[in-house]
Amino acid sequence: MQITVISITDLAEIIKANVREALAEQAAPQSRQHAAHEYLNMAEASKYLQLPQNTLYVFCHERRIPYSKRGKRNYFLRADLDEWMASNRKQSVKEIEVAAMAQLRKGGKK
């Protein structure tokens, strides 16, 4: 086993490099997070929702999805799209059974 002697300056540089690398790794996931108040254009919203742009145009025309219009362009708030997706969530069979049992218990106490 060999022991390598390094100077204090070299040790300081190694520590600085490791700290920079750790901070960069920690900051990377945060940079991928999107602001809820961020506006998306039609193409970005289509990609975000994984829906064709034509479908989004139909949803806008039928007022089935929240959007803002600026001139001839439609814009979508990311938070509104998230809320819209959550509002269309379907319950699982298990959730329906639990709700039904709760309703039966509530009705049985009257």
TrEMBL record:
SUPFAM superfamilies: Putative DNA-binding domain (SSF46955). Residues 39-89 form the Helix-turn-helix domain. It comes from the Bacteria. This is Helix-turn-helix domain-containing protein. The lineage of its organism: Bacteria, Pseudomonadati, Bacteroidota, Cytophagia, Cytophagales.
